[in-house]
Every structure is written in C-alpha cells, then in structure tokens.
Amino acid sequence: MELPTRKRMMLFSGSANLPLAEEVARLLGIPLGGVQRDQFANGEIYIRFEESVRGADCFVLQSHSKPVNFHIMEQLIMLDALHRASAKRITAVVPFYGYARQDKKHLAREPITARLMADLLIAAGADRIVSMDLHSAQIQGFTVKPFDHLTALPVFLEYLHAAVGKDMVIVSPDTGRVRLASLYARHLDAGVAFIHKRRRPDLHNEAAALQVVGDVAGLHAVIVDDMIDTGGTVVAAAGLLRQAGALSVRAMATHGVLSPPAAERFADSALEEVVITNTLPVPPEAAGLRNLRVLSVGPILADALRAIFIEESVSALFSGENA
C-alpha cells in the first residue's frame, strides 16, 4: 500500500486574543479551527476540539495576557488535547511570552520562571514554540525543541519612515536595550542615545530615570523597547528627552501590557505617541487614549507559520535579524 504525501495545516486560538488569530487565519487562507470551551463551577478549564486533528500540523495561538495564569493554563490544556488526539506536529504560538522578565536570578532563592514556561509548553505536547520580541533572547535556549523568535521590527520601521521621516534619534530606555536601539538606528540612518537609570531589584515596575546620554537636541526621539507595562520608565524618559531639547518623543514597544496606571501616565506625559502592536489586546482603560496607536503583526505571524508549515526558513523573512 502506498499513500501520497499529504499535509494539513490547522490553526486554533485560545481566548486571549481572538481577533489576532482570526487575522492570521484569513491571511493564511484557512478557517480558524473550532474549539469548545467551558469552565467548571470551581474555575477549572474544559477544552474540546470540534473536528479531527489526526495527522495534522496544528498551531495553537495564545498570548499570555491578563489573566495571565488562566491563559497559560488554557493553552497548555489545548496542547495536551491535540497531543492525545494524535496531531502530527504541534506548535505553540505565543506572541507575548508569559513570565519572560523572570529569565534569570537577580536575588538568592528566586525562580527562573521563563524556563519553567518553556518546560510546561513542551511537557503539554508542543513540538515547537514560536514567539515574538522576547524580553531576553536567551529564552530560546531554555528548550531543546525548535524555538522560532520573530520580531516586529519591519512593522515599526515602515511606520517610522512614514510618520517621522528624517531627523530621528533612537533612544534605549536603559543600557540593556542599546543593541536594539542600534538595530533601529542602522535601518533609519539615525543616531543612538540611552537613558541612564537605576532600578532596585527588590521593587517591581519601579525605576528611576537619571539622565540622557547622547545628543537628542533638535531631533525627533523614538524610545524603543520590547514591552511597556505600567509606563513609568517611558514617561520619565520622555520628560528627560524633552528637557534635553528633543523636538518630539515617541515610545514604541511590541507588547503593550499597559497595566494601571499606564493610561493615566500617558495622558499626562510628554509623549506625542505610544506605538504598540496587537500581540496583546488593549485594556479597556487604555483603548480611548488619543496618543495610542496599535499596529498589526498579523502578516508577520502568518508568513512565519506558513514558512514553518512548508519547511522553509523563518529567519530569512527577517534577513537574519530575528536572533
């Protein structure tokens, strides 16, 4: 008996970011797979796929947005269900990777929860992980399974070329993001500056911006980072940049976590614009902000998933700049 080679791609979504999953499915030209979701009275999650997945190449898209632990658990249960239903290959697509900030020990007796996250995804049945603009690139090495790291850089570059044009300086919010700022600057033929700040390791979401290092006077400053959470860092940096003579200040980050009081801080800040992507849904309290702009990474995710399915290079989509 001889069977011709046949591959079937199926995309499923968790409940965290359904609009993004629907956009990716539309761009891929496939229907979004049906999932029955329910909860028991005590909050336990129930998942059942509504069609056969046997022998299929399955992708489960779920951003780890609030409530973070619920959405992580939902994705793990979906991966387990696919594994037990004999899917041929299972890819966990995590546009925003939960617990990515806990990628190393700062103090004694701390966990490395980003590594635990990778272990959980693989234990649940994932054969591959896809994520975007990780807080630290070393997270890719937390598993022996393939880990594709995507970047929203092309989306942001296109926007900056159209919205700002010339006379830009790319600003790193701290010394740890200078490499990222340099990458932007190289594409935009711009200078680089950074904010020297001090952060207490025992306090989370709190930092003190101290001074601007670099020439920003008479230029349009663009702060680049992987995520914006409570907004304290970028708002403080924007004030310093304006004091240093910047013509305008924008903040750009792939992941808009936007935990309170981010919306209030942005509304009363020196930021002309806060630019994020749709890897995470915008919280209701931030949805009406006049200076918030959301760009879509749907085309990037669709191209990456298509490349994985047909066994082509993912890094080629970014000219190797997604490492």
Regions with little confidence, pLDDT below 50 for 5+ residues: none
| Quantity of strands, as a count | 14
**Helix percentage:** 25-40%
Specify the number of helices. Answer: 8
Largest sheet: 7 strands, mixed
Oligomer: single chain
Structural class: alpha/beta
Mean pLDDT score = 94
Q: What portion of residues belong to β-strands?
A: 25-35%
Radius of gyration from the alpha-carbon trace, in angstroms: 21 Å
Characteristics:
323 residues; alpha/beta; seven-stranded mixed beta sheet; five-stranded parallel beta sheet; 8 helices
How would you sum up this structure, described in words?
By secondary structure, the protein is an alpha/beta fold. The protein is 28% helix and 25% strand. The chain is built from 8 helices and 14 strands. It has helices at 18-28, 68-84, 113-124, 153-163, 178-188, 232-243, 262-267, 298-309; strands at 9-13, 35-39, 45-49, 57-61, 89-94, 128-132, 147-150, 168-172, 191-198, 208-213, 220-228, 248-256, 273-277, 292-295. The protein has a 7-stranded mixed beta sheet with strand order 10-9-8-11-12-13-14, with helices on both faces. It has a 5-stranded parallel beta sheet with strand order 1-4-5-6-7, sandwiched between helices. A two-stranded antiparallel sheet has the order 2-3. α1 packs across α8 (298-309) and α2 packs parallel to α3 (113-124). The chain is globular, with a radius of gyration of 21 Å. The protein starts with 8 loop residues before the first strand and ends in a 14-residue tail after the last helix.
